[in-house]
Structures are given as C-alpha cells and as structure tokens.
Write a structure and sequence with these properties.
Layout: E1 13-14, E2 16-18, E3 21-23, E4 29-33, E5 40-45, H1 49-65, H2 73-89, H3 91-102, H4 106-129, E6 134-136, E7 144-146, E8 153-157, H5 163-176, E9 180-184, H6 191-200, E10 209-211, H7 216-225, E11 231-235, H8 238-249, E12 255-258, E13 264-267, H9 273-285, E14 297-300, H10 302-317, H11 337-345
Parallel strand pairs: 1-5, 8-9, 8-11, 9-10, 11-12, 13-14
Antiparallel strand pairs: 2-3, 4-5, 6-7
Helix pairs in contact: 1-7, 2-4, 3-4, 3-6, 4-5, 7-8
C-alpha cells in the first residue's frame, strides 16, 4: 500500500501565542497526526487554565489600557486589508500546513479555503466602512442615539474541518470592531493558525490576537469559563455546544453558536435532473464530506427515486480517492482515525 508523504515539515512542538510571541503551555503533550498517512508529525503542548489566564490578562490589558478599541474606522480598515494581504502573500505555506492538519485536498485549500480566509478580512473591512449608529425619536421630548462599542475580550473556538476559513471569520469580525481576541483552534489542526498568528505579529499590536492550544475539556473549558472573557463564539458539534453554553452561562457570558445539523436535499421530478444529481454529489462529498452543510440526507420524489439512486451510486464509484497533494484527487483522507471509525460504524 502506498504511503503518502507529508505535505510540509511542521514544527516539532506546537506552542501557544501571547503578546505577539510564542508561549509554551504548562500542560501535557498532545500528539498531532497527518491524516494522509496516520503518522504522528508533531506534539502540541496543551495550555492549562493558568496559561489561558495569561492570554486573557494580555488581551484585557490591551483592550483597557491602549487606544486599540478606539482606533478610527479608516485605520482599522487599513489593518484588516494588511491582514488579508499577508495571507495571500503566504498562501503556499499556509495551504501546505492546512493540508498537513486536515488532510483536505491541497488544490481546494489553495483555491478556496485560503482565499476565503483572506476575503474574510476584506469583507469586514468593507462592512465597517458602512457602519453607522441609530437614532430614535419615538417619544416626545427625547432623542435616543445608539452607538455600538466593542464588547471587549472575546473567546473564539474554531473547528477542525476548515480551520483557516472558519477561524479567520471569527478573528476578522472581532478585530474589525475593536475587540481583542483569543483563539482556540482544534488540537487536531493547529499548524496553519499558529503560522497565521506569527504572520500577523507585525500588523496587530500585542494582546490583540492571542492563541491557546489544547483539548476542549481542558483549554476550551478554561477559556469559556474565564470571567475575563466578554463574549464567546463557537463553531462545532451540538453536544459540545451545549457544554460551552453551560460553562459560559455561569458567568452570563453571551455566546454565538454555529452547530451541526442534518442537512437534506429535496429532489422533485420537476427539478433539473443533472443539476440535482451534481448538487447532491458535491453537497455530501466536497471538503472530504466533512462540513456542517453536507447533504447527508436526500429526499427524492418516488417517480424518479430508483433512477436517481442508481445514477448517484454509479457516479460515486467514479470519485477519485487518494493523496491530497495529487491534482487528480477528488476526496482525501478523513481527518482522524476516531472520525473514520465513527463513519464506518454507520455502514456496519
């Protein structure tokens, strides 16, 4: 059996990031594997509650004692555009690091994921350029003005299935409005995001963007439970999302949640048949089949059911599964052994 080569040589030890420099956590070492061959490629030093507290203190100091939260929109747009450009300037390395962590197809990472990561900063730069306050004069004798201010220190928890694209959405949104952000990536996919932190150090002031590494029940829980965090943004599974909200609820910390679902395609006999077939295939197999909007159910009108199922199966058998670095590959490896075994359990 062919053993796929690692896309890139990763750092031997993955550390956190506080005050624009690496920060070695005080927790256990967590192995990190390349999904393409199942081999361990690095170790991640887990950040404990004490390490998370350092990240929060750094962010809080910057937010409370510097001019960051009060920067002009013009200056903030300039910073966001610089973040976008540094991602595009380093697209090759970021894509290889993303591939190493996720096993996603390199062609798709470069063509979509990293492009999307860069665009996230431009999107929020454009958004804040049109931001405005609100005025209400509903009551005689009173004029109410609404001026939106940054929330403060925000905790961002990103998933493993599209680390750069989804984490940067949170990072860009947070800093666009003057917040200081602490990101916890998945312990499975830390490489591209710790590299991003390093790239942003010459753009963002100390404490604006910190990163802590580790597992959800340890590092994630410490971040969500920390009273110095003003908002939580979480993308991940529904079960974990419930736990995040319970932990945050003890401090009454507001949460924004993007959780899993069971997306259904509905195909009627009157539909454009080939487009429906193409869409159903792309919906379930793109991103290696690992995305919250995967079309994991297909509801087909009885009149075309047998034909649709037969052709869907035939098309599925032609999908090229293989090395994420190969341009002909259409589906790469599943992100982890545990996830692979879960998927296989559905068919047994």
């Amino acid at each position: 059996m062919k053993i796929f080569e690692n896309p890139i040589e990763p750092p031997s030890i993955v550390k956190g990031w506080i005050d624009n420099k690496e920060s070695l956590g005080s927790g256990v070492e967590v192995p990190v594997f390349y999904p393409g061959n199942g081999k361990q490629v690095s170790v991640l030093v887990e950040d404990t509650a004490d390490d998370v507290e350092k990240a929060v203190a750094s962010a809080r100091k910057t937010f409370d004692t510097t001019s960051w939260a009060k920067l002009s929109v013009e200056k903030r747009i300039e910073i966001l555009e610089s973040c976008r450009q540094v991602i595009l300037d380093n697209i090759d390395e970021l894509a290889l690091l993303e591939c190493l962590g996720t096993g996603l197809i390199l062609r798709e990472i470069k063509g979509f994921h990293i492009q999307r990561a860069a665009y996230n900063f431009r999107f929020f730069a454009q958004y804040i350029s049109q931001a405005h306050g609100e005025r209400y004069d509903n009551t005689d004798g009173y004029l109410t003005l609404v001026n939106r201010e940054p929330a403060g220190v925000v905790g961002l928890i990103a998933p493993w299935n599209a680390p750069m694209a989804l984490a940067t959405m949170k990072i860009a949104a947070a800093i666009a409005f003057g917040n200081c952000a602490i990101l916890k990536p998945s312990e499975q996919t830390p490489f591209s995001l710790i590299k991003l932190a390093n790239l942003l150090k010459d753009i963002l002031p100390e404490g604006v963007f910190n990163l802590v590494n580790g597992r959800g029940p340890v590092t994630g829980s410490a971040l969500v439970s920390n009273p110095g965090v003003d908002r939580i943004s979480f993308t991940g599974g529904t079960v974990t999302g419930r736990q995040v909200m319970m932990d945050a609820g003890k401090q009454l910390t507001p949460c924004t949640m993007e959780l899993g679902g069971k997306s259904a395609n509905i195909v009627f006999a009157s539909a454009d048949y080939q487009r429906a077939l193409d869409g159903a295939l792309i919906g379930i197999f793109s991103n290696n089949g690992q995305q919250c909007l995967a079309g994991s159910r297909i509801l087909v009108e009885e009149k075309i059911f047998d034909k649709f199922v037969e052709e869907f199966v035939q098309r599925t058998k032609k999908i090229v599964v293989g090395d994420p670095l190969n341009n002909e590959t259409e589906i790469g490896p599943i992100a982890s052994k545990q996830h692979m075994e879960r998927i296989l359990s559905f068919a047994e």
